[in-house]
Structure prediction request, 585 residues.
Amino acid sequence: MSFIAIYVLWLREMKRFWRAKSRIIGALAMPLFFLAFLGLGFNRMGVPGMSNQVDYITFLVPGILGMSLLFSSTFGGLSVLWDKEFGFLKEIMVAPVSRVSIVLGRIAGGVTTALIQASMILAASLVMGFKPSSWLAVGLALFLMVFISATFLGLGLVFASQMKDMQGFSIVMNFVIFPIFFLSGALYPVENFPSWLRILSYLDPLTYGIDGLRAILIDNSSFPLTLNLGLVLIAATGMVILGAYLFERSETI
Amino acid sequence: MKEAIVVKNLTRRFDELVAVDNISFSVDQGELFGFLGPNGAGKTTTINILATLLRPSSGQAFVAGYDVTQHSNEVRRNIGIVFQEIALDSKLTGQENLEFHAMMYGLAKQERLSRIQEVLHLVNLIEKRDVLVENYSGGMKRRLEIARGLIHRPRVLFLDEPTLGLDAQTRRHIWEYIQKLNKEEGVTIILTTHYMEEADNLCHRVAIMDQGKFVALDTPSRLKDILGGDVVTLELDPFFPEVKCKFEYLSWIKTVKRHKNSLVLTMEKAEKRIPELLRLAEVNGSRVTSVHLHKPSLEDVFLHFTGRRIREEEASLQERNRDRFRHHFRRR
Prediction:
């Protein structure tokens, strides 16, 4: 494994991120709109299915953080296809570094950008009146977010390795990313689902990611924090290994 | 080790399409070797296999002594490649693209900076180093890519259509770089092209490829010799058959064909022979009203091979037959 290669790939991602200001704004707009409009629109209503009395915007913030991580990380994994389209992937693939370092470099870059975006949303929610249980909780939440992000970067890589170009992007978007988002309980407690649908929610790693964020940030969750942490860790490891394996096996040109 | 590249019975299939069909060849160190062929002939696929980006369906390939499937990392360390399509990150500057590359190849900081400086000078981009690549022209991008391919001092450099879509001036510049590199740094260079004059001007040896197979492999001059040398067309007025007979007796004229009032002759160094041809025609009572000299290009060789679907053995067989026929004729 080459740490320099991981660093170079990470550095490239940072430079590109920093230079694509419009992309950052675009990526932030949707979660912020969700937060603002859903939060304000439903704030007067209680959250059915939650044990303690929590107002909706407080309930929603961890969900929107999870949403932002889901979208930016899956896109980050799929962005391999952009590199393929613009030819740069070939330059990466002929370099004498192990394929694992290439995958880790991309994940390092993707996690960093996803975390920067999530932090900006968290900051915006603080401005809107969101109060985390403690400042230590924010640090712990960032730690959990690394693994949530890694899970979906792995997922993005899995799809990228199976696709030739960006043609299948909308299929992945509509049939993978949105179901993961809606099943995860980002916008409502999954306890409200009928039991057959709840099973699907329990298979969705984002459910545990968001529930874990709720446990950390607002002290209110469906599952114990350790269970959430453990499952997210397992999902992240599994998806990264699967993504790396498929990426290495696929012919990239 | 003398060979930079050894390929044995290499085949690559994409589903039912056979892109590379059982080719074998070797390239010596320091050689400038070209693949010439139309689009879809299998040139790029071959290069991509040699550069470890595609796996062979069957057969073996060694680059710098290493098997491309078994020791791909050693192969990667020893090669540089300029792809057919631009493979730069357009959101980075020229310098940053080169730094990315140098770091991926593990160059230490001091060497990295000096090498980047060096190659930027080589391709005349030192002043544009801090400009984002998206603002480069097509020629500048190409030059930057060639510079990038050289940073880590590869032993074998692959150039896939290095001058595709460039203007004549830039093309000539790039040819000069390629030749300089090959001569001064001793880099083995493999290039693919579908420009005949590029293969002719640059390459020591050329493999003519069509439908995944080699139809011919030799030096450009020997490939052109297959066609029997230069073609001279003389228009005679009046046409006397004796002139034709006279020409057929001359040993330095390889073939003589009549076409209406014209004679089509093949020979070596035709430009030196034309005055004598004119004199002979006049002595035999014919006046030459026009002369046309055609030097064969690789284009003709290519047409010869692919147009008529003749493989090399058959061509040489035909050549021999023609010689035999001529001897026979002369003896009579």
